[in-house]
Amino acid sequence: MGQKINPLGFRLGTTQSHHSFWFAKPNNFSMGLQEDERIRNCIKDYVKRNKRISSGFEGIAHIGIQKRIDLIQVIIYIGFPNLLIEGQTRGVEELQMNVQKEFHSVNRRLNIAITRIDKPYAQPNILAEYIALQLKNRVSFRKAMKKAIELTEQTGTKGIQVQIAGRIDGKEIARVEWIREGRVPLQTICAKIDHCSHTIRTIYGVLGIKIWIFVNQE
């Protein structure tokens, strides 16, 4: 049987680097990992509560965290100009205070920076949110998948695969549907592949969306 592995973890050290960068003693590792998760969840919740964009999704590609002895540097990579655009420092300061409250760290200060991404639809997280929004609005899943692939092809990627699993269109028997355009060489380690899995709650139940994007080959 074919063994499944996360494409990002499979390529660590070659084409993929860690989103969190810090060192800890083995005893404190789990605490540091939970802290990272809390920071990410707090940022996503804040953006969800305060989003002022008409498209209706967060537009966060990923969140990078770097920890030092006295500083936690958080870099948010966003795809669309929303509440967290570079010019609106008030929004960023408010977010910083919110995250600081979430984990009570006296010794370390928090610094949040925003980085804008040129091609948002080349990011699997943003694409998964787009598909999730379409499915919530009762758009046909096949139409949503094809539209997402069209948007990605415009950014100049070499290949994309989209998979949706669950009670699609409210059918009683759950199934898996997928569609692929171009090449997606998952076995090739030197091929840079972006991957994400996203959960969406619909009135019929939970659907899972997985996206693989073949960016380039080194």
Automatic annotation (TrEMBL):
It comes from the Eukaryota. Residues 131-213 form the Small ribosomal subunit protein uS3 C-terminal domain. Its main location: plastid. One of its GO terms (biological process) is translation. The keyword Cytoplasm does not apply. GO terms for molecular function: RNA binding; structural constituent of ribosome. GO terms for cellular component: chloroplast; cytosolic small ribosomal subunit. The keyword ATP-binding does not apply. It is found in: Plastid, Chloroplast. InterPro entries: KH_dom-like_a/b, KH_sf_prok-type, Ribosomal_S3_C_sf, Ribosomal_uS3, Ribosomal_uS3_bac-typ, Ribosomal_uS3_C, Ribosomal_uS3_CS. Keywords: Chloroplast, Plastid, Ribonucleoprotein, Ribosomal protein. Part of the 30S ribosomal subunit. Belongs to the universal ribosomal protein uS3 family. This is Small ribosomal subunit protein uS3c. It comes from Oberonia seidenfadenii.
